Structures are given as C-alpha cells and as structure tokens.
Amino acid sequence: MKKTSTRLADGRELVYYDLRDDTARGAADRRPLEPTVTTSEIRHDALLGDAVAVASHRQGRTYHPPADECPLCPTRGDRLSEIPEPSYDVVVFENRFPSLAGDAGRCEVVCFTSDHDASFADLTEEQARLVLDAWTDRTSELSHLPSVEQVFCFENRGAEIGVTLQHPHGQIYAYPFTTPRTATMLRSVAAHRRATGGENLFDAVLERELAGERIVLEGEHWVAFVPYAAHWPYEVHLYPRRRVPDLLALDEAARTEFPQVYLELLRRFDRIFDGPDTGAGSGRTEGGGSAGGSRTPYIAAWHQAPFGAAAASHGVERDDFALHLELFTVRRTSGKLKFLAGSESGMNVFINDVPPERAAERLREVASS
After folding, report:
1. How high is the pLDDT of residue 282?
2. Cα 110 to Cα 291: distance, rounded to the nearest angstrom
3. Taking every annotated instance into account, which residue ranges of this chain make up the domain Galactose-1-phosphate uridyl transferase N-terminal (predicted)?
4. Residue 249 gets which letter from DSSP?
C-alpha cells in the first residue's frame, strides 16, 4: 500500500491509498473554494446522559446529485470534484460538511473505488484489503488527535438508509467521547466479569454462538452469526476468533482472510430477498441488485474500543473489548422496510419480525456456489 497525503483547495486533508507503490499523485484541486466554516457543537442530555452533535452548516450539503455531478467521482477534464486525480484506488478526505469538527471531533469520507456504479460487494479481494488497510491507518492517525476518544468506521448504503450520495463510500467519525452504545457494552462486560469471577463477556457470547444454529459463515480467523437477540430482521455480527480491541491489533492472517469472508457476507445480503421465502416478484439484475437496479440497503459498522482511559472509567481494561463489525439491513422482506416506530424510537425496545434462527438459515441458503 502506498499512502499519499495532500490538501484540497479549502485546506482539508485528502489521502490516497494505492495498490501500486509506483503510483504518483500530484494533481491540484482547481476549484475556487473558500475555507470550510463549521458550527459543530456537542451538547449533553442531562436526563439520558448521552451526547448530541448540533451541526447547522450541514443543511447545505450535497443532496442526490445526478451521476455526472457526483463529488466523489474522480476529476476528469473540466468536471471538478472532491478528488483532483482522474482515477484512484481508495481515497479518504475530510468531510466538507462534517457533523464533528475541531474540538468536537472529526469526520472523514472514505471512497472505496472510483467506479461510480460499483458497490463494496463488487470489489476484488485485493481492493477490499486496501479498504481495510485504509480503515486501520485512519484509526491510528485519528486516535492521536488530542480531542478524539473513539474512532468509528462505517458504511451506509441505499436511499432507504438516508444516503444522499450514491457513489460507493463510507465514513469515519472520530468522537471526542465514548459513544453511548460502546459505554453500554463496557458496563455489561464489567458486570459480567464481576458476576463470573473474571470471564470475558465477548468471549462467552462468541462461544455460545459457535455452538448454536445462528452461524452464517466461518473462516479460520473470522466468524459471522446472527445474534441471539438481533434487533433487526437481518442482522449479522462478524468477529475475529482471536479477541482484539481494534483494527490495529489484527494480525496478518486475519487481515488476509477478512476480504474473503466480508465480500461473501455482503453478496449474501444482496441475495437474501430472492426466492419464495421473502415474497414474490423480487427478481435480480446482473449486478446483484434487486429488480429496478436497487440493492439491499444496509449499515456496516465497526465497533472498536475507545482510546485513552475511557475503558478503565467503565471498570474494564481496553483489551477486554472485542473488535467486531455489525451489518444489518432496514428491509424486513422484499419491498417492505423495518420502520422504527413507537416502541423502538420512543423507548428503544426493538420488536423483530424475523426469528434470528430463520434469518441465519436464510443467509446460509444464499451462499455463493
């Protein structure tokens, strides 16, 4: 992997990650951009104890542009974009409309490929490994910023999720605090260790799933399963077999196998709504999407341990946390979405329409031949 860092016209950082070591990057951003002005602010909810980012400048962000005006495609001729080069492998840059900025953290955009019509599932194993290396490098770089406590790499795909740019991309949020979801996990790990005399809760969960019927696929170094108490109709958790706190701690064997396992998992997500079990008339296109050219919408979220003393403040060591990826779709069956209604949105009590065991069975049925 070759890494090249540069600056956009408004001063934001942009980093190219290239497969070839002899790739040269030197194109300048020719756009007449003014310096980025952000108004990001973190406010704390006194009753719930969580944090809310207020970022009014995001109202003016790019919204569903036509393909020939996509800001994530490479610059070609007079069509200028966020990426000055005419092509790229993987590129990361500071978000022009960040939710978090300055002392309130940092937001970055990760473009997986210069091919506007592709998806992560279309990448080769070599390309997917480059994305993993970019996630890892950004986690390392952002963890050293004085305001950052937790780094969150994720992908939102599909208009149903709320994605406003269709180009294959993800984001990285560097929070100045430990997120509520992670804090809850840390408290659960601490409570389980006290109750069992030292057992790690993540290890116990993985051991239980390995012995059950919700396994979706297994590799030598990774395991994917539908959790016992899945919140979403189709939700898969992907764990390395060896517990590590973050992407930085993965060994080379796990890094090598990851693209094989993850790409297969994503391709299964693009097939789960085929067939009689999920409704009639859900034919597919050549690209693996559903009828009409759409693909299964999903969120893919990496959960990493917070940095610094955050874990200890919840009663555990940082190494007690287990890196894992959570992948889920908001679709519950062909043509129908899982909306968060009163119980979910009002009380955070989820109601799942699909038994986790059946979801796992379905994801095994659509394995690549």
Report:
1. 33
2. 28
3. 103-177
4. G
pLDDT tens by residue, 84-132: 999 999 999 999 999 998 888 999 999 999 999 999 999 999 999 999 9
Catalytic pick from 169, 221, 237, 303?
169
Contact 163, 295 (CB under 8 A): no
| pLDDT mean over 27-55 | 89
Tokens representing residue 216 in the block: 């979706």
Average pLDDT score, the chain:
91
The backbone torsions φ and ψ at residue 215, rounded to the nearest 5 degrees and listed phi first, read -70, 135
Look at phi and psi of residue 105 and say left if phi exceeds 0, alpha if psi is from -120 to 50, else beta.
left
Look up tokens 């009828």; give the residue: 291
Q: Quick check: 285 pLDDT over 60?
A: no
- Beta strands 331-333 and 336-337 are antiparallel
DSSP string for residues in 298-353: EEEEEE-PPSTTTTGGGTS-GGGS--EEEEEESEEETTEE----IIIIIH-----S
Give yes or no: 237 in active site.
no
The C-alpha atoms of residue 367 and residue 264 are separated, in whole angstroms, by 8
Q: Label residue 339 exposed, middle or buried (CB < 10 Å: 0-12, 13-18, 19+).
A: exposed
What are the start-end ranges of the E strands in the chain?
2-7, 13-18, 41-44, 51-54, 90-94, 106-111, 150-157, 169-175, 215-218, 222-225, 234-240, 298-303, 324-329, 331-333, 336-337
Identify the bridge partners of residue 76 per DSSP, sorted by sequence position: 79
Q: What structural domains does the chain harbor?
A: 2-175 (3.30.428.10), 196-365 (3.30.428.10)
